[in-house]
Design a protein that fits this description.
Nucleotidyltransferase, domain 5, 41% helix, globular
Length: 184
């Protein structure tokens, strides 16, 4: 039987805050489910009549509808919580070391943001030194990648839940909590 290969999408929420939490999300999707989930997110955005999904810009009624529609999609989120303020210099390497192991069978990693090529090389070297082989690491704009937007939704939802346990946050968290793993 062939090993499953995964694509990883990384986003964060709250990293510039002076208080509360910063959340980093590693959204894991099997290669065979990528196209289906990608199309599902794009279709949901059309259905909600939004140009592109972004947690912070979404009204609550859209957040509820979106969470309801994605709860049965085939993905898992690995989340690492950092207490603000954070030192951003090596946070991505720390995060990757906590969520990725050498037996995860990762083919590609997509990270939200426009970082320089040097950081791509540094991350690839860092992973290789830790026994993790990755075919491609790419920094992308969330407007161009629907699955980064899905990672943004999960990151925003979880940070919002941690920082304010109101009824709305609790409801959405309860819909999606089985999709979330928090590594030790």
């Amino acid at each position: 039987m062939e090993n499953k290969k995964y694509i990883i999408y990384i986003d964060e929420s709250g990293i510039l805050s002076k208080k509360g939490h910063s959340i980093y999300v590693c959204l894991c999707i099997e290669n065979i489910h990528k196209y289906y989930i990608d199309q599902k997110i794009i279709n949901l955005e059309k259905e909600l009549k939004i140009s592109y999904l972004h947690w912070v810009d979404m009204p609550w009624k859209f957040r509820f509808k979106f969470a309801e529609k994605i709860k049965n999609l085939e993905f898992i989120s690995k989340i690492v919580i950092y207490k603000n303020p954070i030192n951003q210099k090596n946070i991505l390497k720390d995060f990757l070391s906590k969520v990725i192991s050498n037996n995860d069978n990762i083919s590609e990693i997509y990270i939200d943001g426009n970082k320089n090529r040097r950081l791509q090389t540094e991350l690839k070297t860092f992973l290789r030194q830790n026994g993790i082989k990755v075919y491609k690491i790419k920094f992308v704009d969330d407007k161009d990648e629907s699955l980064i937007r899905l990672a943004d939704f999960i990151a925003g939802m979880y940070r919002s839940f941690l920082d304010n346990k109101n009824n709305d946050n609790i409801y959405i968290y309860n819909l999606l909590k089985y999709k979330i793993k928090i590594p030790n």
